[in-house]
TrEMBL record, chains A, B:
Originating organism: Pseudomonas wuhanensis
Protein's UniProt keywords contain Nucleotidyltransferase: no
Pfam families named among the record's database cross-references: cNMP_binding, HTH_Crp_2
Alphabetical list of SUPFAM superfamilies matching this protein: cAMP-binding domain-like, Winged helix' DNA-binding domain
Domain of life per record: Bacteria
InterPro entries: cNMP-bd_dom, cNMP-bd_dom_sf, Env_Response_Regulators, HTH_CRP, RmlC-like_jellyroll, WH-like_DNA-bd_sf, WH_DNA-bd_sf
Name assigned to this protein: Helix-turn-helix domain-containing protein
PROSITE patterns: HTH_CRP_2
Domain HTH crp-type span(s) in chain numbering: 160-233
Keyword entries, A-Z: DNA-binding, Transcription, Transcription regulation
Length: 246, 246
DNA sequence: CGTGTGTTTGATGAATTTCAAAGCAGGTGG
DNA sequence: CCACCTGCTTTGAAATTCATCAAACACACG
């Protein structure tokens, strides 16, 4: 049974080799025909240059996007122009889920480095999901995961001090990179301090000071955008509700 | 064409008269047979006493719930016991969407007054949605709307000061009550100051002071939990990025 | 009428923002 | 190849906002 599954997953992987959303959103147990359908759905690759917008708030929804290569941020602007970063997306993450409600994107999505996405025609996706229950179920789960992620952010913004927020942010990046096969201890930040600050509800200066604190306590080594995590356990301990350094 | 639709919607309304999720999540253009299916899906009514939990974090997902009567809050607890209220739900709002990802609820849901919900068996819902494209589409939209709502909260927590947050909170309640046919100018808060504070990332004392500020500027009249909005426009103006009272 | 829960207000202190200035790195043109 | 921008980061000092602590108050309920 597991044999069959992993075999089909493999076929799928080959068929969809231009897209790595596999491990995140693809159902298993499909026929070759179905795989072909799925493949055609996500065939469109799109390159996005650093600092270019993949889409902007109020653009009509046509595609959902799965990041293939690179790094994105999504943000919303308040009426008076203040930016709120709502997320950072790395390979395998989805973009555009917020647009399904109204049919218009509610965020701006920018590439933080030269990137590539799979464009998934949303109408086609819904049609196909109609025929593939497991695809539909996975789509539901992807939506739900996004909600859970946002709840985590509410907790962070509502209850954590600046150092805890920063530690939580670094740990989150670390884990997500790790899941994707990269080092969890050393990585490079693709965003500016100001964007981290916006995401965490803090000013950029506060981010700098937070980094200095973590460094002073030998939890991390940071130079510019290069991060090395020195003491994962104490970092986790800090986030887990301990307001002070241990 | 609109005739047919509204007629069917009406049939649906009758069929599902025990549940008012209609206007929020039901697709139009269904056959009588389909209406019957949908009706059976949401037939289960559940009463929840004030302060009782509808479900708790880590309970396995069996149902989504649509609030029929009453008022709920959802919250998550951090490891060290701090509460973060993630939302307040009134009639027509859905509960439990966060659980679809893992199959376990991630929040606690409490009734803030004697309430009643429609329990929607999630597995059945997915099955039925498989057969009714418009139901599936609506489900997707409901998920997406929740994400948009959360993004609004991120903006609020990340970029607004305490008075702006409070004003935004009151306006949000006002609008949602209005959409449901209640007064947008006068209403009763079902939650304590502490719960408002948790939701807005503030302490309860700060909520009190914020209310005093709004009162001083003749924007609202508040006594206990009774709220009367005196100047909707200036309240909106305050939220729209004007850091100070106008 | 007392008790408990929830609300309000004041005084103080801590955390974060703001303002300011200097440092650093990468890219460009002389 | 160097000097000079420009954008980003870092650090310091002052100002502000919000949290904390404390006490009084209001109201409902037994």
């Amino acid at each position: 049974m597991p044999e069959t599954r992993s075999c089909q997953a493999h076929a799928l992987k080959l068929a969809c080799s231009n897209c790595n959303i596999l491990e995140f959103c693809l159902p298993l147990g499909l026929t070759g025909e179905e795989v072909a359908q799925l493949d055609s759905l996500i065939m469109q690759r799109v390159k996005v240059k650093k600092d270019a917008a993949l889409y902007r708030a109020c653009d009509p929804l046509r595609f959902l996007y799965a990041v293939r290569i690179g790094f994105f941020k999504t943000d919303v602007l308040s009426l008076d122009g203040r930016e709120q970063v709502t997320g950072f997306q790395m390979p395998g993450d989805m973009l555009g889920l917020d647009a399904v409600n109204s049919g218009l994107y509610t965020c701006n999505a920018f590439a933080l480095e030269d990137s590539e996405v799979c464009a998934i025609h949303f109408d086609h996706l819904e049609k196909l999901a109609q025929e593939l229950p497991s695809l539909q179920h996975n789509l539901n789960k992807i939506f739900s995961r996004e909600i859970v992620r946002d709840h985590d952010m509410l907790m962070l913004l509502g209850n954590m001090n600046s150092d805890e927020r920063l530690a939580a942010f670094l740990l989150n990046l670390s884990q997500r990179l790790n899941m994707r096969g990269y080092s969890s201890k050393e990585f490079v930040l693709k965003m500016r301090r100001e964007e981290i600050g916006s995401y965490l509800g803090l000013r950029l200066e506060t981010i700098c000071r937070g980094i200095a604190h973590l460094r002073d306590h030998a939890l991390v080594e940071v130079s510019g955008r290069e991060v090395k995590i020195l003491d994962m356990d104490r970092l986790k301990h800090l986030v887990a509700g301990c307001h002070r350094f241990s």
